[in-house]
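thought: fold this chain, then report.
action: predict
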Amino acid sequence: MNTLAQHIQNIRIIDGHEHLIPQKDRQKMNADFFDLLHYVRSDLITAGLDSAFFERDNNMSDEEKAEIFLKYWNKTKNTTYAQMLRWAVEDLYGMNDWTKEGIVALSERVRKASQDPKLYERVLKEKAGIDLAFTLIFTTKVDFELFRPVMFMDHTFKLRTLQDIKSIEKLTGTIVHEFEDYLQVLDKLIERYVKEGMAATKIGAAYWRTLHVEKPTRQDAAKVFNQLKMFHLGESLSQDEAKPLQDYLIHRIIQRSIDFKMPIQIHTGHQEPSVSSNGNIITNSKVTDLVPLLLEYEEAIFVLLHGGYPYYNEFLSIVKNFANVYADLTWCYILSPTATKQLLSQMIEMVPQNKIIGFGGDYSQVEGTYAHAKLARKVLTEVLTEKVESGELTEQEACEFANNILRNNLIELYKLELKRAPSIRGNISVSTS
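observation:
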């Protein structure tokens, strides 16, 4: 293995974006092989598999599940999502028998691993080379030895019914009568999350509405809020009717994030069908719709997720031009290694390297994160090798670039008290910590 490839293999990654459930929850659910499918389930469904297959209470035996799975696996095993599943179970569980009997046996091995209290540490730290991961699981109660929490904020501004407001009242233990009351509750909730260790706020609105945010007045927002307060019979506003209130609250979240010097992660681009509630209307995720917000809040720190794919040329232009915007390659490698190689190659040519977050597994189970990290290192090695061979970068510069996007940039962006990656000079690694 050449110096560059070996160096990238040795980098201790800081993982910018996951959805890894707490290990105690995995133990409680007694996760099996079929709980590891995550992203490949989308390909299985689009290949024709009934989504009811994935319901945990479907009363099917492992044998029945394996037989159905194999029928659709043979239709989808060409995709990168499927390749990640294959890498994960072959590397971590020694899987080499893709028959019904082999899958049943694998599922039992996964159940046994799910009860291992050291599973996360073993897979993340030892196998994947990940020192720390940012995870979004709707709670700040995470293992801080392995994770930092990022909190979705959509539940605070996705208001279309009275019940949506009551949910926030229940969450905060505060009764809300006036719009001003609600704003104070929102402020206190963000402050609570910060005290509990939140590392960033997250806006995932593109999954259920457009990213375009207008500038409504407080009066406009309060009028919509008061309409909701009168909905005692289960009425609901349309998305267009609710938008002034939602937009005002998005501005508020950004403003409070600025107050706490908290980065704001925003979903852009591709949508995961299993969680999308907008009918997979991909145009709702256009990164260019964010430009008014990026212009207004120059003091904010925006982290735009997923390379904006398939709008990645617009994504690159925006990240290049806005000092307050970071590019995050979370999810990108498994969407398409080919597209990500092109994106990363252009990014090296266009974007200052301190603004690039190089990896986020984006999985709900650690086995997927392991496989994704393996692929990310492979793709990054291939892209940087091409840049070195073409004379665009020296080998040392390529190693420094990998250090920055896989580790150092996250330390700086999220103010982590961790050591920076060792630099390399010639064939000798030199610590810069």
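thought: worth noting. The CA atoms of residues 11 and 71 lie 39 Å apart.
final: tokens above.
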